[in-house]
Design a protein that fits this description.
Number of helices: 6
Mean pLDDT: 93
Order of helices and strands: HHHHHH
Helix content: over 70%
Number of strands: 0
């Protein structure tokens, strides 16, 4: 079977092959496939963590993945709004701008 290389492999495969292998095989191949949480719930937890940690580059990818995994734009905007009180206003403002950018492209 000739599987298309992952985005991570295309971007960093030759530069950081071990990090790519761990990302593809362990994070997305194992952790994201565990049955104890749905992919929707994993996306919600991941997006919340990225908002709280102010990780806009990773948030872009995971907002799209969250929608693919069943979260709505409205739910994701509400998560950002809710987290403003727990993760800080600047993190929420940055995250809502990222969400606006991501959602305007889809």
């Amino acid at each position: 079977m000739n599987k298309e290389p992952s985005a991570t492999r295309k971007m960093l495969g030759e530069f950081a092959p071990k990090l790519v292998q761990l990302t593809d095989d362990v994070l997305f191949g194992d952790v994201w496939e565990r049955p104890e949480l749905s992919k929707r719930d994993r996306s919600l937890a991941t997006v919340a963590a990225l908002i709280a940690l102010n990780r806009p580059d990773q948030l872009r990818f995971h907002l799209n993945r969250a929608v693919e995994n069943g979260l709505t734009r409205e739910e994701l905007i509400e998560v950002i709004t809710h987290l403003a009180f727990y993760a800080g206003w600047p993190n929420a403002m940055t995250s809502i701008q990222i969400a606006k950018e991501v959602f305007s492209k889809t």
